[in-house]
Structure to design on (512 residues):
DNA sequence: GTTCAAATCAACAAAAATCAACAAATGATA
DNA sequence: TATCATTTGTTGATTTTTGTTGATTTGAAC
């Protein structure tokens, strides 16, 4: 039906649809080509109506994503995209992983759409539906009753599914990172889920953007499980020195 | 029907379909042959329409530009939107309903985003994540293991969740509508699920666009449960006379 | 309206991919 | 084994794409 015009078409459309709007520069950097190439390649796509061109950016035509969720996706967007790219680069075709809920995880899921043969367990309906539709993937949705603000589940069946899994990676996030108190969140069920997820994975990847190192307005008080030897912390800016020392001491790699 | 033109045809097609877009070089390295061979072999494949050639790469005709599910979303789009509007207009704030998977259901879910306090049960991760994020809704995702082309579940837990539900409406779809054979689909698990869903709902709404009254290229052969008194059939164009008579006789309302 | 920075466009040379032709390799058959 | 048809890799000419440059346009602020 819609015949592609270049080898970049697919990736560009995917990224545009996922991010809603992308600047030409972001895209060219992300894909390692020049701005001009992006412009050239997107012109026929725009004529066909596969995306919209505005001055300075590309806008998705099917941005039917949910506004409230999307707005959280735009908070600290560049950082989250950068982190998602780093995390995604660690996951190879055929890998198995658990992903939790949250906006960073949503970005990671989007970035993982060009991996193949993934085995995925998640308690986020958004992550699940994003990755389930990729041919060849094997996706399990953990849980039945969905929480309303992010469509994630923390019911008994969610824990059962996660506990029965055995995967290579566990991708987690947190609301705050404190040099002494570790990684903190607001809800007890999230802590419990994080424990279950980490127990079912060989190694964990904790994804937190740099803003999480700053004091928060709404202080999270519940402690996520600590990272262990071999785990990885992914951020967009280098964490404070106190943090780095503690992590290095535990043999936890920091990537960005 | 499609006779292979070379011993590589099959593997190339498989890889292209799997990866969506793949450069000629990647493919030649992966398969241990020269670029030129890949080009030679893929030429007849492209002419036959089994894949698309662009400068520098091969693009799958299937999962290429848009994943199969989204491409179906654009097939007969206006009709499906019209139907979705009609169905959505029957659902009021506070109602409870079961929704199945499929592109029409996806549209219905989108339309239901301005309803409040809905209780929803669905086996589609896409529908679930769409409606779960609306504040005040109560959404249950039925099933764990997700099917890859549409992210829906038909495993044992999916049936359990559906069977335990008790809702007002059940929103269903079908691949074909036949005046004598009723509503048909391709997969047995879909029939089973339809039975379970209808059993758990007071009344059913069957949503089929007018194209479903025409003969299909890929003939579905499995029969959905029949509609009963009080159920509703929603279409975009009036169904054929033979159909209308049969439905009226059973006291099934036709809306559009 | 004017100004200015940023984004876009047009054009060109360099790089990359494609094509056609040919020779070597392969494999089946007599 | 010799022969023939087919397939494969290589080579060089041709085509397409890509990044760069500089001119032009755009959008926002004044």
């Amino acid at each position: 039906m819609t015949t592609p015009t270049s080898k970049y078409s697919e990736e560009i459309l995917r990224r545009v649809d996922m991010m809603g709007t992308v600047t030409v520069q972001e895209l060219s950097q992300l894909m390692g080509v020049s701005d001009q190439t992006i412009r050239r390649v997107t012109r026929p796509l725009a004529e066909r109506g596969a995306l919209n061109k505005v001055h300075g950016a590309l806008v998705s035509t099917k941005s039917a994503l949910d506004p409230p969720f999307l707005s959280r996706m735009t908070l600290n967007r560049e950082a989250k995209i950068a982190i998602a790219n780093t995390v995604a680069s660690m996951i190879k075709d055929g890998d198995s992983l658990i992903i939790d809920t949250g906006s960073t995880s949503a970005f990671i899921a989007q970035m993982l759409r060009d991996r193949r043969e993934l085995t995925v367990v998640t308690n986020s309906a958004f992550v699940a539906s994003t990755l389930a539709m990729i041919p060849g993937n094997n996706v399990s949705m953990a849980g039945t009753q969905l929480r309303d603000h992010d469509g994630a589940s923390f019911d008994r069946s969610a824990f059962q599914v996660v506990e029965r899994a055995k995967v290579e990676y566990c991708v987690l996030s947190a609301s705050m990172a404190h040099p002494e108190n570790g990684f903190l969140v607001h809800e007890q069920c999230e802590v419990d889920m994080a424990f279950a997820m980490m127990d079912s994975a060989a190694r964990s990847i904790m994804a937190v953007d740099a803003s999480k190192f700053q004091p928060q307005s709404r202080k999270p008080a519940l402690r996520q499980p600590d990272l262990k030897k071999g785990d990885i912390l992914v951020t967009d800016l280098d964490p404070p020195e106190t943090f780095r020392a503690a992590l290095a001491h535990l043999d936890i790699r920091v990537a960005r």
Remarks:
- Residues 6, 33-37, 40, 55-56 of chain A lie near DNA strand D (CB under 10 Å from a C1').
- The two ends of chain A are 40 Å apart (CA to CA).
